[in-house]
Amino acid sequence: MPQATAKAPAPWSPLLKTHLTSSKSKSFTLSTVTHHPTTGLPVPRSRTCELRGFFPEVLSLHPSAASALDAQGIDRTPSGLESDMPVFTTDIRMAKVGELGVSGGQVEGVFWLEEVQVQWRVKGRTCVFGGEGKEEEQKRVWEGVRGQDAGLVEGDWDWERMVTTYFASHSPVMRGTFRNPPPGQPRSKHPETSELKIGQKVEDLRDPVARRNFRVVVIKPEEVEMLDLSRAPDAVRKRWTVVRDGDGDTERWEEVELWP
Fold first, then answer.
1. Over the stretch 124-175, which tens digit does the pLDDT of each residue have?
2. What pTM was computed for the model?
3. Which runs of consecutive H residues, i.e. helices, occur in 104-193?
C-alpha cells in the first residue's frame, strides 16, 4: 500500500483542498457522542459547522478584520506554516464542547462537495484552544505543522494571537453571537442581560465577554475516506489511515482502495 510520513503532506490532503477550492460551501457535518441522561447509553449527535481553514491558515478574513488586526499589530499570515488539520470554531457553552470529553476528543467530520460530487470523511482527535493554555494539546497540534524551518519554533508561536486571528475571520455580527444568552438553554431561565443579549455587533477583537466564550477547535486526522461519485457507476472510494511504528513516535499513512 502507498505510504507517506506524517510530516510530509498527507497523501489525501492536496486532493481534499483542491475539491474544497472548487466548492462554494465550506460547511461540514460534525458528529460527536454523548450519553443519554436516563439510560446512560451512547447517543450520537450531529451538527453543521463551517471550515475556518487548515491550522494555522485562516481560510478567509472578514473585510473589517484586516485593518483591526493591523491596528493591534497581529500578523495574520504565519509565513511558511501549513498542515492537514481542519479548524472550526465554537462557543464553549455549546453542548458539542462537553461531548468532546465524552468521546476522548474523537470526532468525525463529513463534507459533501456538490460541485465535484465527492464525499469526504475525516476522523480524528480534537484539540480546543482559547481560555487557559493547554501545553499537551499545543504540542500535539504543533507536531502536525510543517514549515518550522521557516525560522519559527514552537516556543516563539503565539497561541493567543492564533485564536484572535480565527476570531477575526468572523463578521462583527457573528462575533456578537458569542455575547448571546447561553445557547440551547430555556429563555425563561436565562433572560437577556446588559451583557448577554441577541443581535450585538462586536468590533473589538479582544472583547472580554465574546472571547471568554470563543474557542478554536483543531482536528488532527487519523483516518480519512473519500467517495468520488463523479465516475459512477464505478465510483472511486479510498481510505487513508495513520499507522504508528515501533514506539509510536513515527507515523505514516496507509492507503487502501475500497469498493464503493
1. 999 999 987 678 888 899 889 987 554 455 555 788 889 999 999 999 999 9
2. 0.91
3. 135-142, 159-168, 172-176
Asked whether 229 and 235 are in contact (CB, 8 A), the reply is yes
- Going along the chain from its start, the domains and CATH numbers come out as 3-258 (2.30.110.10)
Whole-number Å distance between alpha carbons of 59 and 88: 10
CB 41 within 8 A of CB 35: yes
Cβ atoms of 17 and 54 within 8 Å: the answer is yes
Average pLDDT, the chain: 89
| Torsion angles phi and psi, residue 198, rounded to 5 | -75, 145
Quick one: how far is CA 104 from the chain centroid? 16
Measured in whole angstroms, the distance separating CA 75 from the mean position of its chain's CA atoms is: 20
Judge whether 8 and 83 are in contact, CB under 8 Å. no
- φ/ψ region of 165 (left if φ > 0, alpha if ψ in -120 to 50, else beta) reads alpha
Per-residue cell: 120: 469526504
Q: Minimal CA–CA distance to 25: which of 59, 1, 56, 67?
A: 59
* Residue 248 φ/ψ, nearest 5 degrees: 90, 0
